[in-house]
Design a protein that fits this description.
Helices cover 25% and strands 36% of the residues. It has 149 residues and is of the alpha+beta class. It has a seven-stranded antiparallel β-sheet with strand order 1-7-6-5-4-3-2. Helix 3 packs across helix 4.
């Protein structure tokens, strides 16, 4: 995984040993999403559709889908629910692209609009969850989520 140091951007890249057609459903289907991120989720993966993911039993990420192009790209707004959230829903954007890479997938994530004070925590979180996605995407159980404990 790699990171690029733009002022308000977190970028990550990971290779997954499964084709984009296998990986993409893990980004848009509730049952597959919660295998790698979240305890509960509700997803409406179409432009304008909303989603929420209860990540750890306390924190709920939510936003709106901006673009869904199976099996290549999904783009959505991102933020955290709660009155005291430093990053309310809708203020940042996440774009995930899937590119064929041999028999696998090169996944690139770009999270833009992040205030400086939350960049490090989001970079760390994406590293954690993308590693879990890489396991789930090839049929392995990522195990208990240490962020949910």
């Amino acid at each position: 995984m790699s990171a690029v140091a733009d002022p308000d951007v977190v970028e990550k890249e990971i290779r997954i040993a499964a084709p984009p057609e296998v990986v993409f459903p893990y980004l848009i289907e509730t049952e597959k999403m919660i295998l790698w991120m979240g305890m509960q989720a509700e997803l409406d993966p179409r432009p304008g559709g909303v989603y929420w993911v209860n990540v750890n039993g306390r924190d709920k990420a939510s936003g709106k889908y901006l673009e869904v192009v199976p099996p290549r790209r999904v783009r959505f707004t991102w933020g955290w629910e709660g009155e005291s959230s430093p990053l309310p829903p809708g203020v940042t954007t996440v774009e995930i692209t899937l590119q064929p890479d041999g028999e696998g997938t090169l996944l690139r994530l770009r999270h833009t609009g992040l205030p400086k004070e939350v960049q490090a925590s989001h970079a760390e979180g994406w590293v954690h969850y993308l590693a879990r996605l890489a396991d789930a995407g090839v049929g392995r159980d990522p195990g208990p989520d240490s962020y949910a404990m």
